[in-house]
């Protein structure tokens, strides 16, 4: 009952928030820079393989992670130490994968954050130091080098008879641990045209973006190619660069068009509805069948002076069947606003779990004019 009440409160709060947002966002606008991505201005993913040293006995077991031993041997040879043929049993070294995102227009010497994740059976990377690791892009070229002390958000502690783990101690991060060594060539200033990609593709929104740009510059330089793309062409005779053009138009306000959508998280019972959700007139009856089974074992003992009798446990089961739910059929009228839809569903006096089932049934019956997404 406590969990149901909590879910009901969460649901009511989210629906109220969605309704208040829907009534005010109807005429609200967003800047173009907040709803589009500019072609060429993007991050690039980097990856590398390295070693973390200095662990307090929580590193890889070389017998279970032979690649760690091979990497250690190769590293020592590069440093002039001949370690071939020797038996090594260090417990303070771990093989890791190093990942990072290279921001757009990063110049040589710029520092970036890197993430470090254990590959072997190391139990904790806390206190370790990542040895210089090249980070490569999808083309196989090295774009950055990472090194530094690893900071983890979790910890692990163990004793003779028990252990405790908080968070993920085999995953860490090095703030500003990577240095950019190679730049990605991209000249935005001299481009004559580029594309704007909508975060949420929509035909109406794409057309409104093009209309806002053309109206501001008094020139037909923008046109929507599809629901996700707006083509921007620098006008002939425009004395400023493409960077200046983007600076002028990215602050323009546009009213995005939102799809009618219902988001359901069945694990937590959370439901989020958009302001454009509509349903046709429909009748709904809801009921649950609850079966309770309780076990009451009894002890059966042999009679006095009986020969060969044994004491046994006899199982006794009690089965109770109860049907709960609405005692009548509720009629939901055609909804004009989100509030009317919520009021109609709340009139059934049901919890979030049953409401999720009703929404799925409404969609299956074709009565809900909205997209239904189940997480």
UniProtKB/TrEMBL annotation:
Signal peptide per UniProt: 1-27
Sequence similarity: Belongs to the FlgI family.
Protein name as annotated: Flagellar P-ring protein
Species annotation: Kordiimonas pumila
Location of the protein in the cell: Bacterial flagellum basal body
NCBIfam families hit by this protein: PRK05303.1
Keywords associated with the record: Bacterial flagellum, Cell projection, Cilium, Flagellum, Periplasm, Signal
Superkingdom, natural source: Bacteria
Family annotation (InterPro entries): Flag_FlgI
The keyword Magnesium is assigned to this record: no
Keyword Chloroplast included in the entry's annotation: no
Annotated gene: flgI
Assembly with partners or alone: The basal body constitutes a major portion of the flagellar organelle and consists of four rings (L,P,S, and M) mounted on a central rod.
